[in-house]
Write a structure and sequence with these properties.
2 copies of one chain form a homodimer. Chain A is an alpha/beta fold. In chain A, about 40% of the residues lie in helices and about 15% in strands.
Chain lengths: ~450, ~450
């Protein structure tokens, strides 16, 4: 089909919403390492997991073999409210850059949660409802995951308890109000409502909280309240599975026009968006059918892939969660106040970590001011105000397109635009006022995090 | 075509973006009354207008005869970034209400300005650029119009000076930052940068400003700075013309499925969204081809249609603008602090006023808490967090659907969902906290506004 026929926005039909999620683990020659029980050092069993997670989600978490897992019709019906998400040809950006590269982006911000998080939130809430549970608990930092979960729970009539890091609760009151509008109970963490919260407040009066603490409180409430389970918006295998709709729709849209991307770029915090975007393409690469360059983009202030260690570590700073093998800066690593809250995680999805370790993908770290320069340029040219997280991918997509301008290569670039920045205007204001700064941890900073890695048998 | 085939979201092709705007005035037997020069009482000439507005926009403002005016290709290209906007079948809302009514809404919030305002902003900016101007000035209250204009100007490389009502500038810093991110110069009004601003500040030190004052400052800068003109986001005939894309796309989408709405509902502040949504349907009604019920929804706190007078009045509280014949509460009427900032205008589009006066449409006034009840219900059921303005239409759409439930009638309802509420969370918070109040002006309150209506020859 001729180039000219590609529209600005490629919308698939509702009937083309994927029927199945794609589980990239099925095509991985080396599977991601299993979660370990931190007390015993043994792989976590389904039974151990089922006290924390819903049963069907435990099955998905442990399933390294089934390539295609059917998406229940009820979830597909919910997806119809905001999916298929558009795949956008960045004609305006290409022209402004003067590049021969063809740039596409999958825009996941066209829903009220403002990001791709809703894809997994509805799946996790659905299985909780199906299991007859009364409600779910979770933590939220930047607030995108909490908002998405609130929306999914409101739709299904499920109770939703969100522990929001206190500093975010106070600094992002509007995020909090969106969650409350969707009926969620939002508690600033640490709180006096949990034993772990009271203990932390006693030890650190006046603390503004952390994601690790909020996780601890959410898990405590889930495991101590009958009819509740805990849900998580990233890192886990099940989340990458649900997010595969991003990549499946992107691939279907490109296939319609006979377009094959050369480079696929996504921002990486816990890996939910990147893992979802690349999965069907990675499957082709793993099966030796096609080759692609995959680039994970992370903040220079929290460089798990580019400067982390591939080791077993705790997923939370409170060290109550299972151990995961992943690229990590150490659960004691405190990321600086980078505004891309969704990328401020010390670790990384085990699946993506294994793929990176096996040389199947690349990673680059970028600095915050360079990211916001790209974000502002993109907003003005393409008309969408991007989230700081998403803007990491924009930065590298622009950099790759400019390389094509130098070499004259007509490469096709696909990147994930995970969400919108409407609730991140404090960060934009800092950029607009010229007072935004960069931060790169020193080797000494990183050594502190590495020194606290847990001792696991068989791990160096 | 069978009912079942209608998807959740009807997306037209990019090729189906309208080629022409539709000018409903061409089909009106009684044309809207002309703008008058307040000094002479005579109809404003094109020459008088061209000092304030761009030439092509003056022509559009005065053209009561041409039914279809071509949309320049450059504007259609910009429209492709966010149009065609989806027409959504509210299956979830119908089910939740248990109504036999079929509900559709045209969603105009899927762009970074968060509302339909972008449809006219790009048109007005385009004609300014085409005329070789350097920039435009405007005022903004709630901020949707200012944001839309900033985006359009950033795209075209046009300078954009926005006077933002001081109280909004301080209470809505995020709106301000979005405009700055798009390169606009945002000045809190009243300011020391204009003669009128300095005069007002001298007379009323510490004032938090008003829309009327911001208009005065924007007009002063436009008329005193070479290469600048003033642009306005509502009320004017030209704005309704540009906004006709809303109705044209809605009609094209419904026609594809052989659906004819019985009732068409829109919120009404200055009339830009309502006028755009209903125009092609109103054309059919005016030509006697089909009948429709049109319902304008306004806040009970600012009831121009339902309690105003049809009279010549100033469009601004500063009384420097031309006189327009419209339903008005008097330019001295100060609307209470209703959160639907976009509906806090004392007057109304002359075109819609004439149609209402001629019995072609109905109007209802609704109270704020009832509006937010509808907004929250809609957000939870349909997954979109609506703007307070848009939620006025949702309230009446739900009311009409519930009437159908009582009578068993299977009416088809179409309403305009003009935008999203991401920057209105202060209002949602008041509702969530149960501290939102209603306000209905007394007859005495209204008498004050009416007493200040200007004396115009031939007007009672």
């Amino acid at each position: 089909m001729s180039e000219k026929k590609i529209p600005y926005k490629i919308y698939l039909d509702e009937s083309e919403i994927p029927q199945n999620w794609y589980n990239v683990r099925a095509d991985m020659p080396t599977k991601p390492a299993p979660l370990l029980n931190p007390a015993t050092g043994a792989p976590l069993t389904a039974e151990e997991m089922s006290g924390i997670f819903c049963e069907e989600l435990v099955a998905q978490e442990l399933d390294n073999d089934t390539a295609y897992i059917p998406i229940p019709q009820e979830i597909r019906d919910f997806y119809k409210m905001y999916r298929p998400a558009p795949l956008i040809r960045a004609y305006c950006l290409e022209k402004a850059l003067g590049t021969p590269a063809k740039i596409y982006y999958k825009f996941e911000g066209n829903n009220t949660s403002g990001s791709h998080k809703l894809n997994s939130a509805i799946a996790q809430a659905y299985y909780a409802k199906k299991q007859g549970l009364k409600g779910v608990t979770t933590e939220t930092g930047a607030g995108q995951w909490g908002t998405a979960l609130s929306m999914a729970c409101a739709y299904l009539g499920l109770d939703c308890k969100v522990f929001m890091v206190k500093v975010s609760y106070e600094q992002k009151p509007f995020r909090r109000e969106v969650m409350r509008t969707y009926g969620a109970e939002v508690t600033p963490s640490p709180s006096m409502t949990t034993a772990v919260g009271r203990k932390i407040l006693e030890e650190h009066p006046g603390t503004t909280g952390s994601l690790g603490c909020a996780i601890s409180e959410a898990v405590e409430v889930a495991t101590s309240t009958p009819g509740y389970r805990y849900v998580l918006g990233s890192v886990l295998n099940q989340v990458l599975l649900h997010q595969s709709v991003i990549g499946l729709e992107s691939k279907a849209a490109l296939d319609k026009y006979g377009v094959k991307p050369d480079i696929i770029i996504g921002c990486a915090g816990g890996g939910s968006n990147l893992g979802g975007l690349i999965s069907p393409f990675m499957g082709e690469k793993l099966r030796g059918e096609k080759d692609y360059r995959f680039i994970a983009v992370e903040p220079a202030s929290c460089p798990s892939f580019t400067r982390g260690k591939f080791a077993y570590d705790f997923c939370d700073t409170g060290k109550i969660c299972p151990l995961a093998k992943m690229y990590t800066l150490g659960s004691g690593f405190i990321p600086s106040a980078n505004h891309a809250g969704g990328l401020r995680f010390h670790g990384m999805s085990s699946t993506l970590s294994q793929l990176y370790h096996d040389g199947m993908m690349e990673a680059v770290a970028v600095e915050q001011t360079a990211v916001f320069e790209a974000a502002e340029k993109f907003a003005r040219i393409e008309g969408i105000l991007p989230a700081p997280e998403s803007s990491h991918a924009i930065r590298v997509a622009i950099d790759e397109a400019l390389k094509c301008k130098e070499t004259g290569e007509e490469k096709t670039i696909l990147f994930g635009l995970t969400g919108t920045g409407y609730f991140d205007m404090v960060a934009y204001q800092k950029f607009n006022d010229g007072v935004m700064t960069d931060y790169i941890p020193t080797d000494e900073d990183l050594a502190v995090g590495f020194s606290a890695l847990p001792v696991v048998p068989g791990q160096e």
